[in-house]
Design brief:
The protein is about 10% helix and about 35% strand. The chain has about 180 residues and is mostly beta strands. It has a domain of about 100 residues: Roll (Pnp Oxidase, Chain A), CATH 2.30.110. A 7-stranded antiparallel beta sheet has the order 3-2-6-7-8-5-4. Strands 1-9-10 form a 3-stranded antiparallel beta sheet, with no helix packed on it.
Length: about 180
């Protein structure tokens, strides 16, 4: 099946790639915390430890992501759908006004995430109508659970096929990957 290349068609096609769901948090220079839901997250490098995610160039969160600024990427658990939806909203105040992270220099940490990567902004690259944000991973924290997944415009979960053995894609990297 082939379709005309339209923004809607492209968006629908991109949506066929099942992804995890993250919330990225940071702090604007004025101390205001920001958070955005992003599924454009991937590992980049083990040495140095780098990851990337993409942010719309028009986002009000852009000022929080300047060279060297701290930010945190949270991989959401299946039970955190409400957080994914909250941080996907196009509104300025996504945090409780009385919460403890107001006007703090570090990015907010969201409780109960499957994994949190504490990062420092390493580089920003233009990418069409988005910015490609590369972060240096400084610390990780993780917990057991089932990840929140996104596919075809719907949220769900991922369940590993127990009939297939666990694969370490990094093992033997020097010998097998070119």
């Amino acid at each position: 099946m082939s379709t005309a290349l339209t923004q809607r068609g492209l968006r629908d096609a991109f949506g066929l790639f099942a992804t995890g769901v993250t919330v990225v948090t940071g702090v604007r220079p004025d101390g205001t915390p920001v958070g955005v839901t992003a599924n454009s997250f991937t590992s980049v490098s083990l040495a140095p430890p780098l990851l990337l995610w993409c942010l719309a160039s028009s986002s009000s969160a852009v000022p929080a992501f300047t060279r060297g600024a701290p930010f945190a990427v949270h991989i959401l658990a299946h039970h955190q759908l409400d957080l994914a939806l909250n941080f996907a909203r196009r509104t300025g105040d996504k945090f409780d006004a009385e919460h403890h992270w107001r006007n703090k220099p570090q990015p907010p940490h969201l409780a109960e995430a499957l994994c949190r990567f504490d990062c420092r902004l390493h580089a920003v690259h233009p990418g069409g109508d988005h910015l490609i944000i590369v972060g240096e991973v400084l610390h990780i924290a993780h917990a057991p659970g089932t990840p929140l997944a996104f596919h075809g415009g719907r949220f769900g979960n991922f369940s590993a096929d127990r009939g297939i053995g666990k694969v370490d894609i990094w093992e033997g990297l020097d010998d097998h990957w070119y």
